[in-house]
Automatic annotation (TrEMBL), chain A:
Family affiliation: Belongs to the OB-RGRP/VPS55 family.
Pfam families per UniProt: Vps55
One annotated GO biological process: negative regulation of receptor signaling pathway via JAK-STAT
Main location: membrane
Localization, UniProt: Endosome membrane; Golgi apparatus membrane
Protein name: Leptin receptor gene-related protein
Subunit structure: Interacts with LEPR. Interacts with RAB13.
Organism classification: Eukaryota, Metazoa, Chordata, Craniata, Vertebrata
Membrane spanning stretches: 6-25, 32-51, 71-93, 100-121
One cellular component (GO) term of this entry: endosome membrane
Automatic annotation (TrEMBL), chain B:
This protein's name: Transmembrane protein 50B isoform X1
GO cellular component: endoplasmic reticulum; membrane
InterPro entries membership: UPF0220
Membrane-spanning parts: 24-42, 57-76, 97-122, 128-148
Cited Pfam families: UPF0220
Subcellular localization, as worded in the UniProt entry: Membrane
UniProt keywords, alphabetically: Membrane, Transmembrane, Transmembrane helix
Amino acid sequence: MAGVKALVALSFSGAIGLTFLMLGCALEDYGVYWPLFVLLFHAISPLPHFIAKRVTYDSDAASSACRELAYFFTTGIVVSAFGFPVILARVAVIKWGACGLVLAGNAVIFLTIQGFFLVFGRGDDFSWEQW
Amino acid sequence: MAGFLDNFRWPECECIDWSERRNAVASVVAGILFFTGWWIMIDAAVVYPKPEQLNHTFHTCGVFSTLAFFMINAVSNAQVRGDSYETGCLGRTGARVWLFIGFMLMFGSLIASMWILFGAYVTQNTDVYPGLAVFFQNALIFFSTLIYKFGRTEELWT
């Protein structure tokens, strides 16, 4: 049952993050929907980890070059997700308030994704059936 | 006076054991530096779109820094030392030459970015921000390369 509680908590925080993101786009003062492109960064941020996990079979080694490259690219995607709204605000496409809201939403959503991996990603495949 | 500080010891921090996580931390720090550098450059390119303000050829520095990042990190330290068993037609010498060219490109673009900063911006009495962006991009990629290359240990891979 612990898995279900964690799942509910994670989806709650994910919804809060998306709410921040939508607030940054859709509030009457702002009303510009370009920041929604950070959703792409959210979507592709776990991909390097999945690829590295599939490529490296043996789990005996504490680390591997492929997994470290995956960490590198994941960090890059996260940094890009934070850099993109800042650039939009710099060229006055969106206002700085909207940028702040999107950044807050980014932080919450990435923490949610991180939490998802901490809770469910640790075990092997059978842990998906356990909860 | 000699050996004055020999007995001075920083108290050992037992809070977190970093030895297992060292490679992951180094990778994340390198990633932050690398992509922050590129986003600084994107910012400068977006804010100063005209070639008079930011000459488009100044992007070459960052491109070569990135190429050097790949070249330096594509060979492992074991290859350079000659510890690995497989030897091609180039072998250890090839790895060393490759790494040497990589570091040459790295230092070359770092120096070139400093040159751009001072030659094209500071001495011309123009808005200096694009030059600073070029310089910081190359400096951050440089430090990212160093951390990614030397911050990780290859003992964890075996």
